[in-house]
Amino acid sequence: QVETLKAKLLEQAQEIGRLRSELGGTDAEKHRDLLAAENERLRQEMKACEGELRELRRQQQAPCRDCAHLQENAGLQERLSQLQREAEEMRAKLAELDLEVQQKTNRLAEVELRLKDSLAERAEEEERLSRRLRDSQETIASLKSQPQQIKYIIKTVEVESAKAKQALCESQSRNQYLQEQVGMQRQVLKEMEQQLQSSQKTAAQLRAQIMMYEAELERAHGQMLEEMQAMEEEKNRAIEEAFSRAQVEMKAVHENLAGVRTNLLTLQPALRTLTHDYNSLKRQVRDFPLLLQETLRSARAEIGQAIEEVHSTNRELLRKYRRELQLRKKCHNELVRLKGNIRVFGRVRPITKEDGEGPEAANAVTFDTDDDAVLHLLHKGKQVSFELDKVFPPQASQEEVFQEVQALVTSCIDGYNVCIFAYGQTGAGKTYTMEGTAANPGINQRALQLLFSEVRSKAADWDYAISVSAAEIYNEALRDLLGKEPQEKLEIKLCPDGSGQLYVPGLTEFRVQSVEDINKVFEFGHVNRATECTNLNEHSSRSHALLIVTVRGLDRSTGLRTTGKLNLVDLAGSERVGRSGAEGSRLREAQHINKSLSALGDVIYALRSRQGHVPFRNSKLTYLLQDSLSGDSKTLMMVQVSPAEKNTSETLCSLKFAERVRSVELGPVSRKAELASWPSQEQLEVTEGLPGDSPGTVAPSGRGHASPSPGQLSGRAASIRRKLQTSG
Fold it and tell me: Coiled coil where (predicted)?
């Protein structure tokens, strides 16, 4: 079997050599020779075309140097270069085909080498197995021959002497050893037989691999023949197409050149005309920069003059606009005064640390730089604009705010009733605007200081008496902040003189003569006012505070008697119970505050829509402010808003309410003055109830506030009276 396998391997090697010689020496060489011949032919054709092109260039170089048909000539040259590129591409394809043939030849050689290596390895393995088989057979043969001699010796030694017996024993032991060796050799023989079987299996596998290699060689040979045939056909087709295309293009080139020759003779006059035009254009281009600079210089001068005229016109228009704006505001204020409208000022407090940090503490309120009566609120991504009579930004001081309201304050000296009230959500700064601090007082204290200043300036002709009352509305109950019993509930009643005005029986009224008296009264009233801490304000006002300043005057020269009242109201802040965290008594306070503010909104709505019935009596607050809201008073509302993003809903409600209040017309205001015979100073004091009594003596107000009897004053009222007497 081994010899047969060797013979088959040798036959396969001879067949592979034959195939290789046939493939390399016939088709591949012929194909390469054909491609080389074709390449040489194309190279000769290209050289001939290049010679013709050089000849044409020499013929046309002199007359066509400045010819307008140079572009056509360049196009022909480009087409010729394209033909040359196609020839180069054909050469590249030919080189690729040669490279592919070489690669396939290398693959075939590699397969042959692998086959030879496998055959050599199998031959060596078979040779080694044959040697081991021969050695095993020789060993078996030698072992088979030895036991016969030993038996013979055993039989022959049985009749010999003791010395022979000893030799016999030794021979027996040796025979046993040889038998063991024979067993071992038999075991080795079995192993050799197994190895022979495995080698036979390996030979069968090799034969299968050889058959697979043969099939692969046949398939590769067929594929190679098909690919070479296809490449040969493709090459021939490409060469024919290139040759025919080159012939057509060369024919077209010759025709174009003939046309160029005929056109050259006719285009020479046109060329001279074009040359002349070109020279004239060249001169114009040379002179163009100077002309351009001059034009730009004049244009810059004209533009600068126009800009200056526009600037001067804008300045004049801006001056006229500001003048008209001031005039419009003046006319508007006068119209508001004549109509009796409620004037509305807005004040935006600054962002504080209580507002927190992050997006909720962002500023949502902006102002109009050209109009100090307009502000803009950014609510839920939309900007809402509001127009009031005056808007104070966060940086506005208490002095600036009071400068806008001091005209109203001084009008009460002339006998007018004035009402200033602060409105807004809790924590918006109402109490700060109205009362302020000791170092920076608000409208209340500044108003009284202004009144004292005006009284001193008119002391030469007028006698004035200023009295102060303080009350609060807490849980719909009216309480006297300066009385003996601050917790005592008071009632609002009509004046018995039939004038239709309101008064509060039992409301304490103190006469003040200096700023020190004012400070003591404010301090006493502030102690009695109800304030508590909520989630929205550390010192939240839980009641509506009302400061009533009565100014009575007498002109000594004419006997003219005037009575004016200044009502300064600090409303409690509207709040959402869920945000303020009010519980228990705080919750009840918040409910009463919101109810009274809602009643105020109903009154404003009724006044604005000119309804026949105005619900003043729905709340103690609106009932007490009836004189100020029914057309017999100059009224100003100071709406306080917070700029924080988290308070935009409350700010929007406050500003909408302020716009509704601003549209209410109360009618013209009447002055409270009467002309009487000239009295003496003692008569004036007796009439006013202010003779030699102490400054703390309680007197009835000009609008009907009944005062308690002297016997009712004790406790805190008596202590305040003693302080005022000492200061007097």
Answer: 2-146, 189-245
Alpha carbons 15 and 7: distance in angstroms, whole number:
12
- Look at the alpha carbons of 372, 645, 436, 547 in this order and tell me if their dihedral is positive or negative: positive
The answer to whether the annotation marks 426 as part of a ligand binding site is: yes
Nearest to 482 by CA among 445, 432, 521, 443: 521
How far apart (Å, rounded) are the C-alpha atoms in residues 495 and 579?
42
Burial of 290 (0-12, 13-18, 19+ CB in 10 A): exposed
How does 40-56 read in b/e, with b if 16+ C-beta sit within 10 Å?
A: eebeebbeebeeeeeeb
Instruction: Find the mean pLDDT for residues 341-345.
Output: 82
Parallel/antiparallel/unpaired status of strands 560-570 and 390-392: unpaired
How far apart are alpha carbons 594 and 426 in whole angstroms?
A: 11
- Tokens at residue 147, please? 């036991």
User: In this structure, what token pair is assigned to residue 636?
Assistant: 């100003």
Q: Is 431 annotated as a binding residue?
A: yes
pLDDT confidence tier of residue 695, bands split at 50, 70 and 90: very low
3-state secondary structure 373-406: CEEEEEECCEEEEEECCEEECCCCCHHHHHHHHH
Q: What six digits make up the tokens of 431?
A: 């109490």
Sign, CA dihedral 202-206-212-216, equals positive
Amino acid identity of 323?
A: R
Q: Determine if residue 430 is labeled as part of a ligand binding site.
A: yes
For domain 343-532+539-668, the question of CATH label 3.40.850.10 is answered with yes
- The band of 352, judged by pLDDT with boundaries at 50, 70 and 90, is confident
pTM of the model: 0.50
Report the half-sphere exposure of 350 (CA within 13 A, side-chain side). 7
pLDDT of residue 366: 93
Spatial separation of the C-alpha atoms in residues 684 and 678, rounded to whole Å: 10
* The amino acid at 422: A
pLDDT digits (tens, 9 = 90+) for 610-640: 888 889 888 888 888 887 777 667 888 899 9
Q: How far apart are CA 446 and CA 74, in angstroms?
A: 99
Find out whether 425 is annotated in a ligand binding site: yes
688 versus 578: which is more confidently predicted?
Answer: 578
Answer whether 63's CB lies under 8 Å from 271's CB: no
Position 615, amino acid: P
Per-residue pLDDT tens for 473-531?
A: 988 888 888 888 877 888 888 877 766 678 888 888 889 888 788 778 878 877 777 55
Q: According to the model, what pLDDT value does residue 28 have? A: 54
45 within 8 A of 166, measured Cβ to Cβ: no
Proportion of the chain above pLDDT 70, given as a percent: 75
Looking at residue 625, its pLDDT comes to 83
Long-range contact pairs involving 306-311 (C-beta distance under 8 Å, separation at least 24): none
Taking the C-alpha atoms of residue 666 and residue 628, their distance in angstroms, rounded to an integer, is: 9
Q: Whose CA is closest to 32, among 100, 86, 84?
A: 100
Q: Which two tokens stand for residue 586?
A: 């705080």
Write the pLDDT tens digit of every residue in 271-310: 888 888 888 888 888 888 888 888 888 898 999 899 999 9
Per-residue CA distances from 134 to 3, 130, 179, 193 (Å): 16, 6, 21, 12
172: number of Cβ within 10 Å: 14
More confident residue, 565 or 10: 565
